[in-house]
Amino acid sequence: MKKNKHKTVEYGRYGYFFIAPFFLVFAIFQLWPLIYTIGLAFCENYTDTMFNVEIGPTFNGLANLKDVLISKDGKLFDTYTCHALGNTLIMWALNFLPQILLALLLAVWFTDTKVKLSGQGAYKVMVFMPNIITAATIAVLFYSLFNYPNGPVNQILTSTGLLDEPYRFFNSKWATRGLISFINFWMWYGNTMIVLTAGVLGISPSLFEAARVDGATSWQIFKKVTLPLLRPIMLFTLVNSAIGGLQMFDIPKLLTTSGYGDPDYTTRTMTMYIRDLAFTGSKQVGKASAASLVLFVVTLFFSLILFYIMRDKDAIAEKKQIKKAQKAIAARKGAN
Fold this sequence. Notes:
Blueprint: H1 15-40, E1 43-48, E2 53-59, H2 63-69, H3 80-111, H4 120-132, H5 135-145, H6 152-159, H7 173-201, H8 205-213, H9 218-229, H10 231-246, H11 250-255, H12 270-279, H13 285-309, H14 313-335
Helix pairs in contact: 1-13, 2-13, 3-7, 3-10, 3-12, 4-7, 7-10, 10-13, 12-13
């Protein structure tokens, strides 16, 4: 009698065909440019404007990094790169913290079964609406609103007596920084709220009901139930917002009249400076790559800080207890 041999089909391997396009696109358009940029950061590569001839790339060690971090008179962090990085960090911090706090507040409010807010769909659409409007449109809108001297904001402030004469918003560095930060906050807090709302809805409702039965207040539920279980989504949101915020380009580029970070380059971000280095004048691609490497390191630094802050302390403590118990058992066995 011949035994029937049934061939087993491993369907799991077909999943690799579906995820392969993502990794292929990632390797071509993200991983390789990143590796190539890191390589160019250690090379001299620019265009001779007199003869219109490209020089390099030739290896020059740490010369580019020295140029972007140390000024010609030997002062550390007193360079155009560091100033652009400082502008970026200031404007990112001004919109990052309010964005996360308001988005978290709205997400908890919309998902609170005790509040039972009516018309949630309409509110969510209105909150998310600025995110689907193009940055160019919003930049033109705010430039018209705060324009000197006949912008609507200046007209309202002068007609109500709050100002004696129209104010030049775009001639003040802090006013311009504040506008850029507010626009980024206004555009993205709705998107952040949607992500956090999805995270809260993923928590089992029975946990909230059990907490209310035990007499917990809304603040106690938020602190002891929502926040701990929302940690993975919060981590994703924080890191994603940090990466996007440190790469801000379109709003400060389009809002200022010259596009170079007026007034006095106080709103020029790192990505604006990198673009100016690489594509204008002598096209210092090597120096632009070094500045990109600095931005990458700073972004990585803040991401690691967020990973450390949002770590699961209970899980770490449990692992430590398990290791102590294992060592104690091993010591007892060794003594016997």
